[in-house]
Amino acid sequence: MQMEQAIRLIAFAGVFLLVALWEIASPRRPLLDNRRRRWFTNLSLIVIDTTAVRLLFPILPVALAQLVQTRGWGLFGQLDLPFRIKIVLSLLLLDFIIYLQHRLFHHIPLLWRLHRMHHTDLDLDVTSGNRFHPLEIVISMLIKMAAVVFLGTPAEAVLAFEVILNACSMFNHGNIKLPAAFDRLLRLLVVTPDMHRVHHSTIVRETNSNFGFNLPWWDRICGTYRSQPEKGHPDMTIGLKEYRDPQKLTLLRLLIQPFTAP
């Protein structure tokens, strides 16, 4: 698809800058960990994850979706639906699949070893939304590509979904303060920072809640929604109880963390 990389880069840079400035203007919580070390680690992971995907996958989801469309594969290839309906359904179904994937990464021990790296961040800010182990990104990519083939998702929907997913991840990991009344209304449509922050609590029952990234509806429908943390947002502890030493959360240690015990 023409301009795909430009669209991705402009969207990423624009949302990153907006949320980063918002965090300065209206922070939700004081940051406890060293910002320079955290940002180096989290931004380095973006580079590593992107490189891993480019090296391991000869074809990426948008190009795969174009091939699927051409061949008439997948569910939507067999249904005579208006193109706009296919786009909307694709966005909804892909988001639900990511919600289910997120739950699997929490409840299957082998997958949790990969995903827990994301939860070791001692603070949450715009960079936390891209703090994922490269192996988790590879598995997530395989799941997404399987979904594209099974659904026959239009390429336009795949690109839109990936851009929205990345933007929402940076937004709902942001250390930004929203008026309480506005947050209650907004979380009816999208996962807000206060809603997702509960998911990063050290309390296990809170960690295993609010799995959504884009849409908040799946958590409500599937019974995994939790409105607020028990201790309140200013006093809740972010991260994992087993990983509290910042000196052990360096880039190299995080990369080998799935292969070590807490």
Care to describe what's here?
The protein has 262 residues and is an all-alpha fold. It has one domain. 61% of the residues lie in helices and 0% in strands. α3 runs parallel beside α7, α5 runs antiparallel to α7 and α5 packs across α8. The model has no long low-confidence stretch (mean pLDDT 95).
In brief, what are we looking at here?
With 262 residues, the chain is mainly alpha-helical.
Write the layout of secondary structure elements.
Elements: H1 4-25, H2 35-56, H3 61-71, H4 75-78, H5 83-107, H6 109-119, H7 134-151, H8 155-172, H9 180-186, H10 193-197, H11 204-207, H12 217-222, H13 251-256
Helix pairs in contact: 1-8, 2-7, 3-7, 3-8, 5-6, 5-7, 5-8
The pLDDT mean sits at: 95
Radius of gyration: 18 Å
Tally of contiguous helical segments: 13
Distance separating the two termini = 43 Å
Helix coverage percent: 55-70%
Give unreliable regions as ranges.
none
Principal-axes shape call:
globular
SSE string, helices as H and strands as E:
HHHHHHHHHHHHH
Sheet with the most strands, sense and barrel status = none
Structural class by SSE content: mainly alpha
The count of domains is 1
Q: Work out the strand percent.
A: under 5%
What is the count of β-strands? Answer: 0
